[in-house]
Amino acid sequence: MPARRRNPPREQRQLNEAARLADRLQQAGYTKRDIARIINRDPSLVSQFYTKNKGAAFVPALQQVLAAVETGGITELPELASIAARHTTRRTTSSGARARVRGKAVLITPTGSGTGRVAAQAIASGSARLRPLIAEAARLGLRLAFTVRLAKTSYVHPSGSRTDSPGIRREVTQRSDHTEERSYGSAQTGGFDAADFAGRVDAAGGDVTAAIHQWLVETGRIHPDAQIVHLEVRTWRPASRR
């Protein structure tokens, strides 16, 4: 009879929150060593999230890092480490009580660069994950651009029309499902005032999808019955403010 395992496989054990967050970061392409660098700890500690139920003090930081990766499009380890450092919970009493950390996900880097993407399911519910990115960009006085994907027949102007999106060198991206991605605004053309779009989102009750759809209809770029199936928002700091 084979020897009974002392520890059951990971999938049979109930993981703590730190381990679950670490798993999601690994699914996003980061290694345990990467995660250790992000939280400024030894890689062995990350392994102990799974084996010794450790990591509770890093849950707020890992939550913010995961939000930055999944929603903000931030991928570089130094930037993620900076985010983690702001949200790492420290033990402050002899009894081990942890200081409460309150804060929003940092979606924009110190240079003003930020990216958020949503697909069909999130778009149908208003692309709520993009609202904090747009609001923060407005607060910081940043510029904004976005890319949408719609059915080819939903656009008013033909593919590559300079009337539709003048100055965008990437033109359009054709998809095999008869949709097209088109970009509006860029650093080269100056983009749009993030505050203007933040105001549009507020006027739409926080619905980012509706606000951008309305802008596209108002400016004669798409038909009123068009449906956005993919949306990406990008931000940057104006050259004069760098």
Summarize the entry for a quick read:
The chain has 242 residues and is of the alpha+beta class.
Total strand count, please?
6
Structural class: alpha+beta
The overall average pLDDT, rounded, is 83
As an assembly, this protein is single chain
Q: Fraction of residues in helices?
A: 25-40%
Describe the global form.
elongated
Q: What fraction of the residues are assigned to beta strands by DSSP?
A: 5-15%
Secondary-structure element string = HHHHHEHHEEEEHHE
Please state the CA-atom Rg, rounded to the nearest Å: 22 Å
Major sheet: 6 strands, antiparallel
- Runs in which pLDDT lies below 50 for 5 or more consecutive residues are 98-106
Distance between the termini: 69 Å
Number of helices: 9
Fold and architecture overview:
This protein is of the alpha+beta class and 242 residues long. The chain is built from nine helices and six strands. Strands 1, 2, 3, 4, 5 and 6 form a six-stranded antiparallel sheet that branches. Strand 3 and strand 4 form a beta hairpin. Helix 7 packs across helix 8 and helix 8 packs across helix 9. The chain is elongated. It starts with 16 loop residues before the first helix and ends in a 6-residue tail after the last strand. 33% of the residues are buried.
Q: Which terms summarize this structure?
A:
242 residues, alpha+beta, 9 helices, 6 strands, 14% strand
